[in-house]
Amino acid sequence: MPVRQLPIQVVNRIAAGEVVERPASAVKELVENAIDAGATRVDIFTEGGGRRRIAITDDGAGMTRDDLALSVDRHATSKLDDEDLLSIRTLGFRGEALPSIGAVSKLAITTRHAGEPHAWALNVDAGVKSDIVPAALSAGTRVEVTDLFYATPARLKFLKTDRTEAEAVREVVRRLAMARPDIAFSLSGEERAPVTWAAALPGAPGQLTRLGDILGADFRASAIEVHAERDGVIVEGFAAAPSLTRANALGQYLFVNGRPVRDKLILGAVRAAYADYLPRDRHPVVALFVTLDTQEVDANVHPAKTEVRFRNAGLVRALIVHALKDGLAREGKRTAANSDGAAIMAFRPGSIPRPGGGWDWRRSPSFPAAPAAPAYANALASNAFAEAAQAAFDTGTPTADVRTEPTPASNLIDSPLGAARTQIHENYIVAQTRDGLVIVDQHAAHERIVYERLKASLEQNGVQRQILLIPEIVEMDEPTVEKLVARADELEKFGLSIESFGPGAVAVRETPSLLGKTDAASLLRDLAEHMAEWDEALPLERRLMHVAATMACHGSVRSGRILKPEEMNALLREMEVTPNSGQCNHGRPTYVELKLADIEKLFGRR
Q1: What letter would DSSP give residue 406?
Q2: Which of 58, 156, 334, 524 is most buried (CB neighbours < 10 A)?
Q3: What is the pTM (predicted TM-score) of this model?
Q4: Rounded to an integer, what distance in angstroms lies between the CA atom of residue 138 and that of residue 57?
Q5: Hey, what CATH topology would domain 438-560+567-606 get?
Q6: b vs e for 13-51, b when ≥16 Cβ sit within 10 Å of the residue's Cβ?
Q7: Taking a C-beta distance cutoff of 8 angstroms, is the pair 276, 324 a contact?
Q8: Rounded distance between C-alpha atoms, residue 225 and residue 238, angstroms
Q9: Lowest mean pLDDT among 44-48, 161-165, 190-194, 395-399
């Protein structure tokens, strides 16, 4: 078959397959054009998930008649000053969006430039352009796309339901709205209730306002501002405290020079920064903005402009990890139980609200219904009230192991975590503060303390170790022994010295001093389980932190240990000076704080 030049209509439809794969792709391209035109407001409307109709109106600069004629030709753009494809300062630059959309749909553009006496209109039907005619429009540009992919029916078969396509459109607009809080956006259509995001003030406060409007009040309440800068690269934005997590990474929003992207490098950096704070199956919620010179990033590596390539990827990754870790350490006292009122909400009874306000505990499902009392019973009740009230406090011995501490010194009550008053169920320390109370999980809290000590020792002069008088022999299956022995050098860094003792056993000769007396067999089995999940590409630093976290769990105060009052207070003081003490190594909260004002609300006192 001889080589031949493809017709322009076929070429445009091939390009459309790269640029416009679904209605959300068309919305993305058109909204980016509006932003690049200097719009301060963008209105988006869709029908049928975008396949029947997409209408986007902006108040940007608009186009002249000549620019409008060129805008629907392939590779025509106003966004490149020269031929330097590495100097991209706009969101769109390929010059393929409008001709690609027009090749597979019915496209109508009405635009007015400030230097023109009136607006101009142009239609494109399956790649066929109409004449340019005068039109009415006050300012900016209005683009309407109807019957998307009608010129390529095969593509319609790959679209999902209208609701699914509408959700994809919503996600595209959300990301662009997060990138530009200075621009007002509205999104409406038959598939959804209208939503409007007003333009926000400049700077971090306005950025957080827009993020809170989109990601929700829970993100705004738990957001931690992050910032890092080096060698012309700036990383800033907001990261949620470890209290707010998701089951997947879809809550991570990343922007490079104002462009929403999905970059594996940045996602990996976020995961590394939160490794010490979250369980393995949970993901943080973040919105990070990376700004750097356009020559240092290639935005031309993907037709839909959703991926980028950094010239110095290591620097960008290191800055992201540093910014997140610094912010998380600064707010390390936030816990999952304290930052969003979850603790108080857990105490609220699931009862029926009374018409006059408050909660009627008698109507709680757990409280049996009582027959109505006759009128004469009220007099009898008042006479016997004193005896009944006194008897109500005679409840016998407590069922839990409650030990109380006399009234503590005032200086302890003024400490951030207060003064220990009691220990219940041999695991929870109850402390009194000046304006509330704190409940501490002693095992989780001490686990974080031991972990941070191990990390600090490793960074300074190595982990101190203790030599066992008699080596402890731990029997295991041969594959497990091989895994442990292969990692012996890494374990040695933490003061755990092991060696092979035959085909199915390991000899433990030294253990970290911080752990005190420990169950070597249990520790080695846990380490072996974690090692089985490691990827060989996992950096050595992360592998070492996994080892430290496992050791910390075994070296901490166990649940069930009875603590003396001085031991409980010592643990509270250690928590106050330990970084990241709000969570244990597995991401669980170490303490719950209840403010006196909230407790009084529960009992209707305020």
Answers
A1: P
A2: 58
A3: 0.70
A4: 11
A5: Ribosomal Protein S8; Chain: A, domain 1 (3.30.1370)
A6: bebbeebbbbbbbbbbbbbbbbbbbebebbbbbbbbbbb
A7: no
A8: 5
A9: 395-399
